[in-house]
Amino acid sequence: MSHAREYILSRLAVSQKPLSGDVLATELGLSRAGIWKHIQRLKQDGADIQAFGGQGYVLRSAVFSAAVLQTQLCTQRIGHKIILLDETDSTNQDIMQQAEAGADEGLVIFANQQRQGKGRLGRVWHTMPEALAGSVLLRPDLPPEQVPQLSLLTAVALHDALSVYAPDLRIKWPNDLLCHGAKLAGILTEMRAEPGHVHAVVLGFGINLKAPVTGWPADITQAAVDLATLSGQSPSKLEIARAVLQALDQWYDIYLTDGFTPVRKAWWQAHAASGDKVRVHHGRGYIEGIATALDDDGALLLQTAAGLQRIIAGDLELL
User: Fold this and answer.
1) 92 DSSP 8-state letter
2) pLDDT tens figures, 144-199
3) Angle at Cα 118 formed by Cα 73 and Cα 154, nearest 5°?
């Protein structure tokens, strides 16, 4: 989206009364005709903008834009800068490049389409047209071995933000979000670090907002579900992005203030298999046991026939 249209949307979003074309033209150094053309393009893109003769323009509902999202956020650390891309290879890659160039903590990048989105264990992550795909940059003062805690924190934040639309939403270890066994959202956390010190952590997430018109891709073997189907509503990208970023900011503040304990407690309460029998495939075979606890490093503790075992990676199956 052009700078002018982003500016117009942001001004309309915070205005308490109709905003005249003359004012916008003066602020942007454009003619009134130029403002009118930008307004028409915004309406074509889905923005509900009404014109009142002799008064100006009023925004009834906005398209998903970085400018409008920033006007609606109330956060301490996350979202001070938001970038929205039409298409990119991977928002996680984009954020990491920005981090290496010195970007500040709290940077957020969303993309309408990812060509090379990744899931856990190197799997392909499909970014559907009606999905929310984004990444957040954090720079916590942590040793690298504690970074998995931030992945679990992200799962808790997404659970809080999305449970309004899907009350039966559960977390599946380590960080998938499921509803009635079908996947609604996934998380991929990456970092840059040296021994003893973390330079940057990228929290990447993808959320299914609506089912694809053409159906889910054939190579998706796990059942998938979307917010519109679960809620009977059609929540907008703008609405969900705001809820997710605010939940992430709130939980990150809790984490920095009180440590991992409240995150672990919330995660365990939302876990789909707390205290239940599960099976984990770890690359060499399966381990079955009762999910008894979550360790500080994000490992799942299973009570098995051979005793208590720590599972640090793998695919969990609910039995």
Assistant:
1) H
2) 999 999 999 999 999 999 999 999 999 999 889 999 989 999 999 999 999 989 99
3) 40
Distance CA 215, CA 287 (A): 34
Return d(Cα 212, Cα 198) in angstroms, integer.
38
Q: Which residues pair with 313 in a beta bridge?
A: none
Query: Is residue 242 scored above 80 in pLDDT?
Result: yes
What is the C-alpha separation between 217 and 212, in angstroms, rounded?
9
The reported pLDDT for the residue numbered 127 is 66
C-alpha 107/C-alpha 70 separation (Å) is: 12
* Pairwise CA distance, residues 317 & 319, whole Å: 6
Please list, residue by residue across 242-280, b when 16 or more beta carbons sit within 10 angstroms of its beta carbon and e when fewer do: bbbbbbbbbbbebbeeeebeebbebbbebbbbbeeebeb
- Whether the per-residue pLDDT at 122 is higher than 70: the answer is no
Tell me which amino acid residue 203 is.
L
For the residues of 226-284, what is the DSSP string, one character each?
-HHHHHSS---HHHHHHHHHHHHHHHHHHHHHH-SHHHHHHHHHHBTTTTSEEEEE-SS
Angle at 162 between CA 158 and CA 164, to 5 degrees: 140
User: Which neighbouring-strand residues pair with 294?
Assistant: 300
pTM: 0.88
Q: Which two tokens stand for residue 225?
A: 């579900």
